[in-house]
Amino acid sequence: MDETILNNLVGELKRGTQVLAVLAHLHRGQYGYSLLQDLSSQGVNIEAGTLYPLLRRLESQGLLKSDWDTSETRPRKYYTLSPDGEATFEALK
Amino acid sequence: MENKYIERYVYAVTKRLPLKMQADVAKELRANIDDMLGTDNPTDEQVKDVLHKLGHPRKLAASYLGEGHYVVAPEYYADYISTLKLVGIIFLIVSLVAGFISAVTMAANQSIWEAFEILVDELFSDLWTKALLAFALVTIGFWIYGEVSKKHQPKEWELKDLPELPKPNTLKIKKGGTVAELIIGVSLGLIFVALLQVGLPYFDQNVINDFLPFLYFSIALDIAVGTLQLVYGEWRWPVVGVYAFSKLYSAFIAYFFLYSNFLSPTWIGEQAVLAGISFDELNAGIQMGLHVLFAVIAIATIVDLVQLFVRVLKAQFAGK
To answer: Which residue of B has its CA nearest to A35?
Structure first.
């Protein structure tokens, strides 16, 4: 068994699962850290350093949209699925 | 909340990202770190814990840049680009200075047109081959480094390893100063060129006419430098490059102008008679004056450029 191929496959599977999990949790708006906690409470293993860049990447692909909420003392960036993101999630399910 | 390590961490990540992403990622990263800390007055230990959860700044920046197949691993891409810039600028400075010096040596006692031809030849011959070689060496170096480091576990890192924040505004170019310099410089240049053209008795008009296109080009360069300074607003490398070129060019033209016998021999002869000395004596005195004048120009140019390079390099690598 080729370890490199196996490791690459595991990596790709992990990334795919993480994307699916993120999309599944963003029907309602969430900011980075709340999503991280949400995912970890449901046993989805994703690191903060992976999740935050992933959110930006999905946004740049048009699957998510974001808004800054500055009404609280801490400004937070909320992400939700865009119509494209909804359609993509439905297709992936 | 203010914590020097958070700011240094955010800086260490964002400085590796494209300019247009930096502000937004910095804002979001600060917000996420605040959320992860959950307190307004965290201890250094809590900060350390959260920042380590986010991972090495180099790795986090690479995640923001995206994944794919690269010759240079994304983790080292930002360092690769800054090394390329550094090697590029050193290469450019060395080529410019070497080109100007060798053109001056080779073209001594030749007309300005021949000198200029030699300068262009010296500046551009082999430039591409040398530049490609420098580029290839840096790229191969980073490729090997990336391949080797893939096989090793990432090193542990400490908060104190984070780069210091750069001092703001050290490279700012003052707008007012630039505009004033531009107006005064261009006006003086135009007055000088106009004086050369009105047919004053001191000048040898044939020699002067040869220089006019080069003097106009010098004024055009001054305008280009001023415009770049206003557009960029700070000493970025393109501004430094064009500025260095314009200063070296001016010194080069000054050298050939001062040693071109631009003074009319008839006029020198008349002055010698008036002063009661021989033509040769007066001419020797004038030549001495011109040597001193050129020495002043050369030294001022070198001091100005060295100071500028040191300032820019200091600012650029303060945080490394």
So the answer is: B32
Q: Residue A30: CB partners within 8 Å, gap ≥ 6?
A: A38, A78, A79, A80
Residue B134 one-letter amino acid: A
In which band, very low, low, confident or very high, does the pLDDT at B62 lie, cut at 50, 70 and 90? confident
Q: What is the mean pLDDT of residues B95-115?
A: 81
Point out the residue among A31, A47, A74 whose CB comes nearest to the CB of B55.
A47
Residues 6+ apart with CB under 8 A from B11: B26, B162, B163, B165, B166, B319
Q: Comparing C-alpha atoms, which of B48, B28, B26 is closest to residue B37?
A: B48
Element (DSSP H or E) covering residue A30: strand A30-31
Cα atoms found within 13 Å of the Cα of residue B28, Cβ hemisphere only: 25
* B46 CA: distance to closest CA in chain A (Å): 15
The percentage of chain B sitting over the pLDDT mark of 70, rounded to a whole number, equals 93
> What confidence category does residue B317 fall into, taking pLDDT thresholds of 50, 70 and 90?
low
> What residues of B are in the A interface, CB distance below 8 Å?
25, 27-29, 31-32, 34-36, 53-55, 59-60, 63-64, 66
Q: What is the pLDDT of residue B131?
A: 82
**Single-letter amino acid, residue B72:** V
Sole residue written with tokens 């040769």:
B280
With beta carbons less than 8 A apart as the criterion, state whether B244 and B93 touch. Answer: yes
CA B159 – CA B167 distance, rounded (Å): 19
Select from A33, A34, A50 the Cβ nearest to the Cβ of B63.
A50
Tokens standing for residue B135: 């580029």
pLDDT band at residue B320 using 50, 70 and 90 as cut-offs? very low
Residue A72 to residues A52, A76, B263, Cα–Cα distance (Å): 21, 8, 76
Q: What is the ipTM of this complex?
A: 0.89
pTM: 0.60
Q: Do A33 and B36 touch (CB under 8 A)?
A: yes
Q: Which of A14-28, A39-53, B68-82, B226-240 bottoms out in mean pLDDT, i.e. has the lowest?
A: B68-82
Strands (E), chain B: none
For residue B54, give how far its alpha carbon lies from the nearest alpha carbon of chain A (Å).
4
